[in-house]
Each structure stands twice: as C-alpha cells, then as structure tokens.
Amino acid sequence: MNPTEDQIYVIIFSTLFLGGLMSTFVVAMVFIHRQRQAQNKQKLDQIKLEHEKTLLNIENEIQQETLTHIGRELHDNIGQLLSLAKLNFGSIKEHKREEGKEILNLVIKEVRGLSKQLNLDWVESISINEFIAQQLARIESTGFCQTTLHADVELDDLPKDQKLVLIRVIQESLNNAIKHASPEKIEIRIMENKREKQILITDNGKGFDSSQKSTGSGMFNLKKRMETVGGEFNLTSAVGKGTEIKLILPN
Amino acid sequence: MDNRLIEAFFTAYPLTSISLYLIMIIGTVCFFRLSKDERKNIHYWLPFLILSFTFCYENLGNYTNYNYEFKKSVNEYLGNFKYPKFNLWLYNVATRQIGTVLYLLLIKSWTKASKKKYINWMIIVFIVTVCLLQFSGVEPIYLSQPIIFALGANMILVAVAFYFIDLITDPFYLAKKPLKLVSFWLMTSILFSITLSYISSVTLMYLYEVNPILGQGLQQIQIVMKIISLGVLTLVIASPFLPRLFDKELSYESY
C-alpha cells in the first residue's frame, strides 16, 4: 500500500466516521428525549396529583370552617332565637305569641341560609368580592375591629380552583389577623392590571418580624397554595407596624 | 434554443439542476398557498428565502458556465487573472458567506431566547472575520476559502447543538415526539449536510489530483446532501398541509 492509497483510506474512513458520529448523535438525542419525556410526564402527573390533593384539602378546610361557623350560629343565634320563641309561645299574651311567630320565621330564614352553606355550591355562585365583603361584615358585626373594602375590579370570572384557593387563603389571613395581631382596622384592596390581579390585605395590628423564619407551617402552606394555582403570596410585616399580605394571580 | 445554454442549465449537472427546479416549483406553490399570517412567520418565509436564494445563485452559476466572457470579466475585476474559468467567487459569497448567515438565522428562529443571543454573536463574529480575512487578502474571494468555510460550518454545528439542547430540555419539546417535528428533520439534515460537505471540501482538491473518481463520488454526496436539505426546507414550508405527518410547532418569536 503506497502513501497515497493510505490517505485515500483515511479520507474514506473519516467520512464514514463523521457520518456515523452524526447518526449516533441524532439517535442519542432521540433516546435522551424519550427518557426525559418519561421523567417529565411522571413529574407532571405528580404535580397534578399534588394540585388535586391541595384542592381537596382546601375544600375540606372550607367545609370544616363552615361547620364551625354553623355550630357557632346554631348555638349563639338560632339557639337563642328558639329559646326566645319558646318563651313567647308560653306567654298568655297574644302579642307575645305573634312575636314568637315572627321569631320562628326569622329562625326558618336563618336555618335556610345556613343549610345553603353546608355544601360547596356557594363557592360557584359567589364572587371573590362578595365573599370578602361577607367576611369583613362578619368581623365588623362582632365589634372586633373596623373593616374597609376597596375594589377596583369585580373578580367574578375566576376558575373554581383559583376561587377555592383564594377563599381559603383570605379566610386564613383574616383569621390570623384576628387571632394574633389584634388590629383596630383591617383593609382589603382588589386591583387589576394588564399582567395580574392583586388582593392586598392590610391590618394595623401588632405585626411581627417577617424577616425571621417562621416555625409554624401556616405561612408556608398559604404560599404553597397560591403557587399551586400559579399565584404568589407575599407577606411584609414589622413589629408595631401591622402586616401587609399581597395575593397575586396572573391574568 | 442554444445547445450550450441547455447544457449549462440542464444537462451539465442534471441531478442538481432538475432537482432544484422541481424543489423550487413545489416550494413556491406551497409557500403561496400558505395563509397570510403563515407567510409572515419566519419559520416559513426564511426557508423560502433560502430556497429562492439557492435557486438564483445556482442558476447564476450555470450562467457563468454558459457565458465565459462574463465569468472572465468578473474574475478580472476581482483580480483573478490566473484562473479565468473559476466561478468560486460566486459560491464563496453565496454558500460560504451569505448561506452560512441565512442558515444561522434559520436555526436561531427555532431556538429559545436564551440561546438566540449566542447565535446573534456568532453571526456578528462570522461577518467581521469574513470581512477581515477577505479584505486583508488572507483568503481571496476567487479562490477556495477553507478558513471561512470551517468557521461557518462549526458555527452552524454549534447552533444546531443549541437546538438539540432545547429539544431535550424544553417542556414544549418534551411533550412532543421528535420524529413528528419538522424542525428536528431540518436540523438533522443541516447537521449531516454540513458535516459531509466539510470533509468533502477539505479533501476535494487533493482527491481530484490523486483519485478523481473518489473525488467526484465525494462531491456527489455533497450534492445529494444539499438537495436533501433543500427538500427538507420545502417540507418545512409544506408542513402546515401535512398535519398527519408533522405536529404543530412552537413559535419562539414571542419570547
């Protein structure tokens, strides 16, 4: 074999080698793609499962909260009204019996209202603005603190999962404010811009050092829940300066 | 019609000429049957531009072989008095320079925003280097330009690698079958065509001297790969009409 022939063989083998290398590269890419596709699918299934689990937990918690509220209503309101009605019916005076009838009608109305809350259908029919207004009215009726709602936009076309999460997060944020902050005023603002919807919950209560890591899982859960529907939960607070919670949902 | 004209445009290189005419006709028909919005999409107009550009310079190449005086005068204008029969100046500018930039732009249109900036830089570096090498006389326009070709080919290979990285990392691509993506076939054809052209152009002059048959064979491979690439470009343009063959692709224009 002379040097020229050698060089020709080198060229032929180089061509075959490069062709083979490129084929191997493309085939390897397809295989890696398939492997990653399977991993990605598994990950997506897991996220979906987690999302469903979170929603189920939220539904349970809302139901639990509703049951507690109904229990409280039965004891504090309906129980009292029924006792009063019983007293009035026991009276010999006609106008007292009439009053008893009116009280009974009021009880029937209250029970109907409560029964509607037993299943989660109300979540579908209520808008976030209405829900917030109800919650604030409830807080104000207890005389605990003053409340204000400023809504620049009506949040009535949200998907059910976003609505459920928002309802639960707002409920929990208000509960936390009442339990831990002892505020004189709670203010909620609803805003929207091109990119996102925002709900701002502020109180002028005790506040806390939000830069320190919380030992409880409450805030972490709220953050995580907002993230499951693609939103954000931002909290800022300082000792003596109240707390501000910003809930963000992308448009 | 003049026999020399027929020979230059049809029979001298029948494989290239006839295939190119067929591909150009199919590509043009498919492109003008696309909707107005699709025609404005870079994924369709850029392949069509490359196809039309190839058609133009290949025919100009054929014309230079027919009109020797024209070829000679251009060579003289460029300072080439030694090889008046060469039309390398045309292929250097069309394939190794403008062609490389067009292919880089094409690959860029299929990659994510994070990688687009690297391709932009590659294009700038390539253009500056080409100008420096050409105007400084290191690689005259009328002779073979191995450095420019090697630089362009390597940049295209790196850009194709960016696409493959997106293919195995991007959630959109991970939800699709790669074999049903027209972009996958386009990148694969570019990859093979560039790699095989690389070895062919490096060894061509040597092989023509010592083993012309093998040299011709290797050049045939290069021609076939070029035709396949142009065929795949036509397939890209025709892909909206082939929904059973190809999945709808993601447009990174909005990124």
Question: Could you explain the architecture of this structure?
Answer:
Chain A has about 250 residues and is of the alpha+beta class. Chain A is about 65% helix and about 15% strand. Chain A has helices at about 5-90, 95-115, 120-125, 130-140, 160-180, 220-230, and strands at about 145-150, 185-190, 195-205, 230-235, 245-250. In chain A, helix 1 packs antiparallel against helix 2 (about 95-115) and helix 4 packs parallel to helix 5. Chain A is elongated. Chain B has about 260 residues and is mostly helical. Chain B has one domain (about 5-255). In chain B, helix 4 runs antiparallel to helix 6. Chain B is globular and about 55 Å long. The model of chain B has no long low-confidence stretch (mean pLDDT about 90).
List the main descriptive attributes of the protein structure presented here.
heterodimer; A: 251 residues; alpha+beta; Heat Shock Protein 90; 2 domains; five-stranded mixed beta sheet; 6 helices; 5 strands; 65% helix; 14% strand; elongated; B: 255 residues; mainly alpha; 11 helices; transmembrane (chain B); transmembrane helix (chain B); membrane (chain B)
Secondary structure elements and pairings:
The complex is a heterodimer of chains A (251) and B (255).
Chain A: H1 3-90, H2 94-116, H3 121-125, H4 128-141, E1 146-151, H5 160-181, E2 185-192, E3 196-203, H6 218-228, E4 232-237, E5 243-250
Parallel strand pairs in A: 1-2
Antiparallel strand pairs in A: 2-3, 3-5, 4-5
Helix pairs in contact in A: 1-2, 1-5, 4-5
Chain B: H1 3-11, H2 14-33, H3 36-40, H4 42-66, H5 68-77, H6 88-109, H7 113-135, H8 146-169, H9 171-174, H10 182-210, H11 212-238
